[in-house]
Records
---
Amino acid sequence: MSQQLGLIGFPLGHSISPVFQQAALDALGIDARYELWETPRERFSEISARLRAPDFLGANVTIPHKQEIRAYLDELDPTARATGAVNTVVRDGDRLIGHNTDVAGFIRAMRVDGRHELVEARVLVLGAGGAARAIVAAALLEGANSVTVAARRPEQARALVGELGARLNLNQQTSLEVTGLSADDEDLAEAAAECDVLVNATPVGMAWGHGGESHLLAPELLPPAALVCDLVYNPPLTPFLRLAADRGASILNGLPMLIYQGAAAFERWTGRPAPVDLMRRAAEEALRG
Ligand code: NAP
């Protein structure tokens, strides 16, 4: 019996996960299909039948279900518990285990592709949604010097920092701050001037639907000596990264993180080393269309 894997989220029209996950399954001769399981909020309860089907092997989870999925699982791994978000479901016999591979994916992307360690870094994160949770968790787990979360709804950033700080910053080794995300916010300007790592964890700049030319930060606030990351990977050079590069900063888009979180999920589902280079090539080809 062929086994089933899929991506649970909504909307999913532009996802390239099926392309690179299927390429990896086929290359290793694993008899499994990876599909898009588009699931709007109002149909989310139907997911239970899929997860408990005899041929279910595992799943990725994305917007808007990374938190809600926890109620359908038997156990969470320590990173999923710490972040409060699940992006990978793994079947272990009759049990369903929730993992968060975004955290490891981001750390690996920073290290391998960004050539930057998070230990002792001063990190500024724009946005306070699910992806920002993974970035803040990564920075805390790696021992960052400081983390500032900037959000247009500062209460969302305060909740994120409060929750993750209580779980991952027990000895307060990392200083945690919150600012607004508006042109005239002085705390934001100060955090941008001082940071070593700046991460766009909002969808602003995505090729579809989020206004490709909107600016999150005034160009003069982009730090020339920092590593500037955008979790968006389509287009590969987002407006945010283009401006940062123009200012002289090192830049990193979201594709390495996407591939590494997917590779970590693949290894948990199959118990086999993921063919990372092949997955990246398949993803790049899909993005070129
Ligand atoms: P999310 O949970 O919906 O959170 C998005 C965050 O961005 C929220 O804080 C939101 O604020 C803020 N935001 C949205 N539009 C904004 C705007 N115009 N100006 C300022 N802030 C804005 O989404 P997510 O899961 O965190 O994903 C964020 C991005 O990261 C997406 O593009 C996603 O594709 C990408 N991502 C990439 C990877 C990867 O592996 N490369 C992994 C995960 C996510 P409000 O709540 O006020 O709207």
---
Amino acid sequence: MPLADPAIIGDEARLKRLHQLALMDSAADPAFDRLTRLASKIIGAPISLVSLVDVNRQFFKSEFGLGEPLRSQRGTTIEYSYCQHVVASHSPLIVSDARLDPRLYDNPAIAELNAIAYAGMPLMTSDGQVLGSFCVVDNVPREWTPEQIEILRELSLAAMTEIELREQLLERQLIEQELRDNRQQLIESQRFVERLIHTLPDVVYLFDLDLAQIVYVNTEIDQVLGYSQDEYQTFSGEKLYSLVHRDDQPALRQAIHQRAGLKDGEFIELDYRIRTAGGSYLWVHAREAVFLRDEQGGVRQVVGVVQDISRRKQDEAMLRGYVNSLEALRHVDVELGETLDLNSVVEVAMDAALRISAADDAFIALAHEDSFEVLAGVGGYKVGMRFERGQGIVERVLRSHTAEIVDDVTDDPDYVPVIQNTISQMCIPLTHRDRMIGVIGLESRTRGRFTHEALQFLTLVAGRITIAIDNAQLYARSQEQLLSLAELYQRVSDLEQMKTDMIRIAAHDLRNPLGVVLGYSELLMESDPVEDPPAKDFIRNIHNGGQKMKKIIDDILALQRSEVAAANATHEKVDLNALVQAAFADQEAAAQTKCLRYTLEPSDSPLPLTGDPGQLHEAIVNLINNAIKYTPEGGQVSVRVYREGKSAVFEVRDTGYGIPEEAQARLFQPFYRVPSEQTARIDGTGLGLHLVRNIVSRHFGRMRFSSKVGEGSLFGFEIPLMR
Ligand code: ADP
């Protein structure tokens, strides 16, 4: 049984410790050699060893008295090792004769190396790991005395002290090496950081929390903020805080509070505006992290990187502006689409203008002949306020039809103040189809407040507003006109009623006395009681006068009847062919009296239509009667009725006086008579044609008419046939 318990020999913690000490295969060391030599001398043993036991071999850190080749080999494989048993048992191994020992009797070292007697002490570290053995060996059997064993123990302890001393030394060397490496690394990384910082386009700074000031800043500070490196490095926390824009200070204060609680790997990030050496504000993005901690782990210094983000902020602001403007424009479109009321229109417009421009004072004014009238106002401008026309930037803009931004009104020779404290002004004309409607004026107490983008958008808005204002004004005007039309209509209706009443009264009141006149004059004529011829003539005149009066009354009543009939006309089936034939027959006697050639050309089939037979008869008789009346004796009157497409047509043609062109347009107006010498003595009222036209249009028909002076006329109408 040559091997000790392999579990103990191969124990991981033990082996780790053994290798940590870096003794295996290390060079011979006089300190250990002194101990082995001493052991052999005092104890009187030929061989003494400091043996370190690895998993499959033992290494002699020191030996005394070994022969070759072992002396050079400085160790054996594990089978030859007696020391392994010291390691395995954690205790001394004292053997007088290995051949008789149950643990060693079959160890090849007995025969090959002649190792007979053995005394070994464990080499135990302070944390309890046995690394090997300090032993003495003899080639003959021998008893080891207690004194010898005690000396061996002392020497083993001394060896162990040496081992641990070396370990400490080694550790220190390692630490020193590490320190050296670290320092080198630090120098390298410092150089790298410096190079990096130098090439960065951003400002890099160190801020010391205890000193409350900047302790380092790179040269980029000059490029970005315009301060020199030296100047900035003296800036206190307070000074830096004061450089930050007032609106951004609360956020900065919060960030400063966070500094003390920063963990490693954490960042504080913040966007803010900082005043440059030139006095303007620059948008920057700052990012801070812990750079140095004090002994208690508190944050001592932070490193920060400051980046110029003014371009990004500008783009963002521009984008926000566009979105705002589009939103306003959409709002304007929606609102203006819904209203025709002028007040609402200007309110919407004002709202949009303010939203886009962020003006302090604003107005929308209508342009009158000699003044501007404020329809909507904000700030110093009030609704109803008026200011003079003919001068100022507003007038210039209105006349040139061109919107303008004036960054500083005090530099503008045309400027005439209306309110106090205005510095910059933006003015957009409201013109529609070259008509000057008014202006939108926006004013600010800050120089250069208005942007070109705002102007462009407001010009778009102005276009829409102008149309809306124009529409609203037109609508208001049309509402007024509608109102006066309604009034007019009422007046006309009243007059119409009055006329109707008068006609009715006149007709009724005239009819009775006229009846008496006619009655008695007829009696007088028949009985011939008066022999005096002139008296007879008088009586005839009375009669004729009476006849004329009757005709007038009949015409008036017919017209009134036809107008009344408009409301309660009958709608029955009528044959126009039959109607015309009957009317033709009625007028035959009159035609004969004037020796006219009087002819009729009827239709061969009925011409059915829907209508009022009485009214249609009246219309036909009127036209035939006119033809007879206005044709001199011996002339010709021809009547015709026929079908033409879907209409029934009635026409009467005469060879009479005809009607001059200039009179034709007024022919169908009530009471109009053609002023001609030839027809002046022909009785009439000028109501007949008007009556006919009304009747025809009530039957959805159209008049037919043509005439030539000296040749004759054609009168007639066409009415749709019944379907
Ligand atoms: P009245 O015959 O009672 O004067 P009308 O309205 O029937 O009224 O006719 C209006 C005018 O048209 C007449 O005064 C006459 O001058 C002219 N007129 C009508 N019919 C004819 C016709 N067939 N030939 C010439 N003139 C006519």
